[in-house]
């Protein structure tokens, strides 16, 4: 039998304090890190709300005491709601996707959601003309795009993840090939378009909160809330899945059903965001990478809120700066994608391998 002896009372007190500290802050290494997390999270949320307030009232052409002030603010609230939707969808889906793939570099974009969205838009204007693309809106077209993207992902998962030889890496490879093929077809069709048609199409293919139609919100918001709650409730399993297939299986987690369940939720979030706002390839990667550094924990119950706070702050602050400081309204998504791409290349070059 092994006994532990303490030479003095001070060692006993130190050991007891460390034990109590680890129990009180189990997701963090110390109380100091837990306190730092909550301070940072509250600060990020406050800055995001401040940026949102600036977007609503700053540089408003209508005086605040005018009856027309509220209608202007209501129109701007639509953009704020779209930013919240984008932050929720991309932050939750990217973090969950990277956890089940056990890779902090890849994103759900590898499954081809943006490529399929681009192919749908391009084929519409190519075969039916610019007027058809302009009229391709409303709840029907939105649900059509969401259903097609989710249906494609379900076929992909059911085909490549089911059975004895189901393989997640093979699914990612097939997703990349499908996305590349769809991009090639879309590029070919775009080269045959008239310049005026190309301009109309290009405006659709840039991700922007201005694309969001408030008529979709009564359908989109309940769907996102349900999926977000399901993903957050899945946090404990994601903690284990992020350790790899062998470790997750040894802990009693049904690996393959859990992965498929997570991928379905990821597909729903990415489909909604892409159909509502447009493609944002590196936005989720940027948010997830920053959240890992800021959270100082591997517990998804804390990573998810941090990722949302960072994503919301990036969106609101970027739009505020571009709209009211640099007066460059059309390049917000381009700037976000640029920074995300730079960080992606930096991490890839630093690790030398995917």
UniProtKB/TrEMBL annotation:
Give the subcellular location.
Cell membrane
> Could you say which protein family the record assigns here?
Belongs to the binding-protein-dependent transport system permease family. FecCD subfamily.
Question: An example Gene Ontology cellular component term from the record?
Answer: plasma membrane
What this protein is called in its record is Iron ABC transporter permease
Task: Report whether Glycosyltransferase shows up as a keyword of the record.
Answer: no
Listed InterPro entries: ABC_BtuC-like (IPR037294), ABC_transptr_permease_BtuC (IPR000522)
Q: How does it sit in the membrane?
A: Multi-pass membrane protein
For this UniProt entry, the molecular function terms from Gene Ontology, in alphabetical order, are: transmembrane transporter activity
Sorted keywords for this record are: Cell membrane, Ion transport, Iron, Iron transport, Membrane, Transmembrane, Transmembrane helix, Transport
Describe its function.
Answer: Part of an ABC transporter complex involved in ferric-petrobactin uptake. Probably responsible for the translocation of the substrate across the membrane.
Q: Where are the transmembrane segments?
A: 37-57, 77-96, 116-136, 142-161, 168-189, 215-233, 259-282, 302-323, 330-349
Kindly list the biological process annotations in GO that this record carries: siderophore-iron import into cell
Q: How does it assemble?
A: The complex is composed of two ATP-binding proteins (FatE), two transmembrane proteins (FatC and FatD) and a solute-binding protein (FpuA).
Q: Where mainly located?
A: membrane
Q: Which organism is it from?
A: Bacillus wiedmannii
Q: Which Gene3D superfamilies match?
A: ABC transporter involved in vitamin B12 uptake, BtuC
> Which Pfam family, giving just one, matches this sequence?
FecCD
């Amino acid at each position: 039998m092994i006994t532990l002896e303490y030479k003095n009372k001070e060692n006993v007190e130190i050991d007891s304090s460390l034990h109590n500290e680890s129990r009180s802050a189990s997701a963090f290494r110390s109380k100091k890190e837990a306190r730092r997390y909550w301070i940072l999270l509250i600060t990020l949320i406050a800055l995001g709300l401040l940026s949102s307030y600036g977007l609503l009232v700053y540089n408003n052409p209508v005086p605040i005491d005018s009856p027309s002030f509220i209608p202007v603010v209501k129109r701007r609230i639509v953009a704020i709601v779209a930013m919240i939707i984008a932050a929720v969808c991309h932050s939750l889906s990217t973090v969950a996707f990277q956890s089940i793939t056990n890779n902090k570099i890849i994103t759900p974009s590898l499954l081809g959601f943006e490529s399929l969205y681009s192919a749908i838009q391009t084929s519409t204007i190519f075969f039916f003309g610019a007027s058809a693309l302009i009229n391709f809106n409303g709840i029907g077209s939105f649900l059509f795009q969401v259903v097609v993207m989710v249906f494609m992902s379900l076929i992909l998962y059911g085909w490549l993840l089911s059975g004895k030889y189901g393989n997640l890496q093979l699914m990612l490879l097939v997703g990349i090939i499908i996305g590349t093929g769809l991009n090639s077809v879309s590029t070919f069709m775009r080269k045959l378009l008239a310049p005026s048609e190309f301009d109309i199409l290009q405006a659709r293919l840039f991700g922007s909160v201005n694309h969001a139609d408030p008529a979709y919100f009564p359908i989109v918001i309940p769907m996102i809330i349900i999926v977000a709650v399901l993903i957050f409730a899945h946090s404990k399993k994601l903690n284990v899945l992020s350790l790899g297939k062998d470790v997750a299986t040894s802990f009693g987690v049904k690996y393959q059903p859990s992965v498929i369940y997570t991928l379905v939720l990821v597909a729903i979030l990415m489909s909604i965001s892409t159909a509502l706002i447009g493609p944002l390839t590196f936005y989720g990667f940027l948010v997830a990478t920053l959240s890992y550094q800021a959270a100082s924990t591997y517990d998804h119950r804390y990573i998810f809120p941090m990722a949302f706070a960072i994503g919301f702050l990036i969106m609101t602050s970027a739009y505020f700066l571009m709209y009211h400081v640099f007066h460059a309204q059309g390049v917000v998504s381009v700037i976000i994608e640029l920074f995300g791409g730079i960080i992606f290349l930096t991490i890839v070059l630093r690790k030398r391998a995917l």
